[in-house]
Description:
Helices cover 25% and strands 26% of the residues. By secondary structure, it is an alpha+beta fold. The longest helix is centred in the last third of the chain and has 17 residues, at 371-387. The N and C termini lie far apart (50 Å).
Amino acid sequence: MQKFGLSQPVRRVEDVRFLSGSGTYIDDTAPREALHGVFVRAEVAHAEIASINTAKALAAPGVHGVYTGADIEAAMENDMDAGRIPNRDGTLSVRPVRPILATGRVRHVGEAVALVVAETLAAAKDAAELVDIAYGELPAVVDPTEAEAPGQPQLHDEAPGNLCYDWGIGDHDATEHALASAAHTVDLSLVNNRIVANAMETRGAWGDWDGERLTMHYNGQGVWDLKGELVTRLGLPEDKVAVFTPDVGGGFGMKGFNYPEHFALAHAIRSLGRPVRWLAERGEGFQTDVAGRDQHAALVAGFDAEHRMIALKIETTANLGAYLSAAAVYIASDLAARVLTGVYDIQNAWFNVRGVFTNTTPVDAYRGAGRPEAQYQLERLMDKAARV
């Protein structure tokens, strides 16, 4: 136990190659003969797609394929999976369709509408500019505190008022009673601002198809979830799908999920029978990588005459973005609740979270996933209480 016991340091062994420029990242591993993929993305936050014309792009020099949502729908389910949680009334949270490539409507800037595959990156970029998309622009809502207000644009028919879930934990009535009888109360409104992840290497992937076996390489945080999804969506046996991850290049949660690009690329790879590679540009990543935080909270604490906390109430509005990412519904709710009371003896507590859709990039786990937000709220409230 001396060597492997508690509090024994675990020394890193990988730093030398990282610091000496000898890391092997996704862009280092793609074969030179691989075709290049470029995604055509929405330039408006909210719009109906009137038409998509790919004829000029398909005829451009070096182009091997142009894929739209219609192509994806013909090959697999054009919908990303995501979790659900129970509402306060016992129903389940809303999970709208999140397409791999958009059909019918786009709901945030950067949403993928088409994929162009060509011999070179330059050829793919040039052809991507030839994809003609006619939009009927719609009003957009980007502030989560306004999303539920009457008259705001509606993102999904199945989510009236843009409400995805209304979740709660604790004892509402006991908390309200304790607050009403408290000798002192302190209230505070806080914003956990939206955070954009900025990995050293942007998201990327490449793959190959040998006629019966798909091999995918991507810079994600684990291979099994993507492998399972590829097996299911493509209808392949498990032993005919292999997924590999080189050095990740930073992720901190943001690269822990399946993204639409993975499945659009897989379809193109199998359709063409050629290796295809894609690496997001930095601005592309800012538009499409899941963001963190973006929560607005109203807090109230009650104290007795001896200044002991007897009640805590927190009501949070969580921005989920335009669609649900994989674990999005759990971040501001269940995960935050696990550390909500911190190190304090709080006998009465009520925590309510309302998750809303807006015309922004989806939000998910990043750098702590709900726990930092909860601790920030609690400690800011306690700091204010100590000063009044």
